[in-house]
Design brief:
The protein is flat. The chain has four helices and no strands. Helix 3 packs antiparallel against helix 4. The longest helix has 36 residues, at 106-141. The protein has a domain at 64-175. The chain has helices spanning 6-27, 64-97, 106-141, 147-175. The chain has 176 residues and is mainly alpha-helical.
Length: 176
């Protein structure tokens, strides 16, 4: 071993021996703490049985104005979804024709425009969905149950999900 490392090794051994002596002094102290439960850890309480869940109440009827607004939003979403569905065939044909085409080719541009038209119809459905979400949140904040609004919102959400799946498929086909 190199002579320059010997003093460092000796110093490290002394520090280690000192640490061991100090720790052993702590261990030899009388009166180890008990591992038994302390009073604060003992279980005691005054629990009461839970009250039964509230009985479901019949949905509160919507005001005539809110019913009319709900019907208008669902009708607008239904009409936009119908236009989307009608344009799906054209976009399907055009995206199939653009499969593998160069990005700026005629087939790719025409298919991209058809997809943009479908996305425009989807955005109209999304606007209705956003307004339904707003109505639902307002109804819940005001203490209503929002069951009728939630049902309409669920229907529009299903249309949006269907449209999203169609658009994803068509976009994927154009990338292939």
């Amino acid at each position: 071993m190199n002579s320059q490392f010997r003093p460092r090794l000796a110093a490290a051994q002394i520090v280690a021996l000192g640490t061991c002596l100090i720790l052993s002094a702590c261990a030899s102290a009388p009166g180890y703490p008990s591992l038994a439960k302390r009073p604060a850890e003992r279980i005691a309480g005054t629990a009461q049985p839970a009250s039964p869940p509230p009985v479901a109440q019949a949905p509160t009827p919507l005001s005539p104005e809110l019913q009319a607004r709900l019907a208008q939003l669902v009708g607008r979403a239904r009409a936009a979804h119908a236009v989307f569905t009608a344009g799906k065939g054209k976009a399907d044909r055009l995206s199939s024709a653009a499969r593998g085409a160069a990005v700026s080719s005629e087939a790719w541009v025409v298919a991209t425009v058809a997809l943009a038209e479908l996305e425009s119809r989807r955005s109209e459905v999304m606007i209705s969905l956003a307004e339904l979400d707003s109505l639902y949140a307002r109804e819940k904040v005001d203490g209503g149950d929002g069951v009728s609004i939630a049902a309409a919102r669920d229907q529009v959400t299903a249309w949006v999900a269907d449209e999203d799946a169609v658009l994803a498929e068509l976009r994927g086909r154009m990338r292939a």
